[in-house]
Amino acid sequence: MKTERKELPSPSAQDLLSQIKFDVEEGKIWLNEQRMLLIHSGVMGSLRKELINSLGLERAKALLMRFGYESGQRDAELAKKIRPDLTSGDAFLVGPQMHMIEGIVKVRPIKFEFDVEKGHFYGEFDWFGSYESEVHVADYGPSDEPVCWTLLGYASGYTSYYMQRTVLYKEIGCSACGEEHCTIIGRPIEEWDDPAEIERYLKPDPIIEELFALQSEIDCLKSSIQQRNDDDLLYKSVGQSKAFKNVCQLIKKASCSKVSILLLGETGVGKEVVAKGLHASSDRSENPFVAVNCATLPHDLIEAELFGVEKGAYTGATQARAGKFERADGGTIFLDEVIELTPRAQASLLRVLQEGELERVGDSRTRKLDVRVVAATNEDLEEAVRDGRVRADLFYRLNVFPVAIPPLRERTEDIPALTTHFLDKYHALYNKRTLGVSDKAMQALMTYAWPGNIRELENMIERGVILTDNNQLIGLSDFFPSLAEPSHPLNVINKQGALCEESPAADTALSEMNMEQYAAAWLNKGFDMEAFESTLIDQAMSQCDGNVSKAARALGLSRPALAYRLKKQTEREDAIHVSTAGEAE
Question: Is the whole model's pTM more than 0.85, yes or no?
């Protein structure tokens, strides 16, 4: 067969080299937005040897081919950014060029033909100085079969991304087998005589999946026999940091008792998730869990909603109905923003906590019930008691077992796991699959102050999944602008939770302030509360594309509460407009 040799184009090498940045002070190497590593080839050889000895030759081969395939896909994505015109041969050859720059192997094209639109591809390449062949011979001596598994997976992954269809390679000659150099041939999968045989190496090992399934089944059996452990506590929760584990330990101890729980923490830290975890790990888990946001209940209907109402108790009460507490009988009720309860509702709640009984609105009959109360607030209840907004006896009854949930900025080591959790959630919701978060974007997530806590992180991940195409990495620019601009004053929060100015001098002064001192500083500057609230609402609505429910969640408000503020804001703006028009006349 007549072959054509083509030298690798030098421009691609310059393009790639310009993308490599050495951040010596931070100890990092960047290739575009991807963090890279310099690792001894001998160390990779040791890892390869351990995989072979632990998993066997075939499973190790499959694992290393999948590792190479993923690497090839990422390099192809980078090549697309550097060389956006992927219809040229020079652009395709960025892949072999990257293999050389990364020190893996020297690549020489023999022949390649392709037509992206028609899906046609045929490629032959020679490899010289394959590190994989060298380390295999050093550990096991000459081989009867080709051994460049990682390189083979890389070529398949890179070309498949480039062609937008599955292209697989075979190694028809290998230096580990005594050849002068290695040689590979690539074709679309359906053009091979044994496509299934080749492709099986790129699929997850079904034996390993079966082992995981068996292990999961064993764990389920153990949990049904043994007393519930910490894993129950993490029901729908994600976190392994010390701060989060401390919360889990407290909840575990409380779950075995009937004591009422008071969850404290900033907006967005996941108080309802913790409450569900408490319920799931208690002996009430088979009974109802009822969540109530007290801030969303109209003040004149709070008692009826919580404790029930009898027919004719007030205008509109056409039939008797049970309240939230009766629906939660035998289980758990979660009262979020408990500070919003009216004085009458607080008295009724105190009676439930102390006597385990209630009366419906308009009824004289007492009903006994057994309900675990979990209350939550992001405000200081002691201060609310001093201000007369909360009954002191109710506060002392709720404060028997307080649990403070740490803000996200105090458990940043949980951010990677939370990110993966939310990626899985929104991949399924939007029926798409990204390649995850770029290294630089993850670095920004780890250093951001997170004033909105886990709720803000979830919103960012959802936005990133929406903006990112399938099989692409979520980059820094795909998240909210606030994340891409860490120097913005709103992104700097001191240990007391106060917002800080950007300048070093101001930051030094404000870092020593508590919330009261910081508020006083703003007031001395002529702070306009109405303008600040309007600006904050406008920003939330803009970031949530006008979705009132999402904006309310981002602001830590209920939807009715935000809708009310939007209505008032519109009325103010209309009034200003009318006033201005009148002056103009």
Answer: no
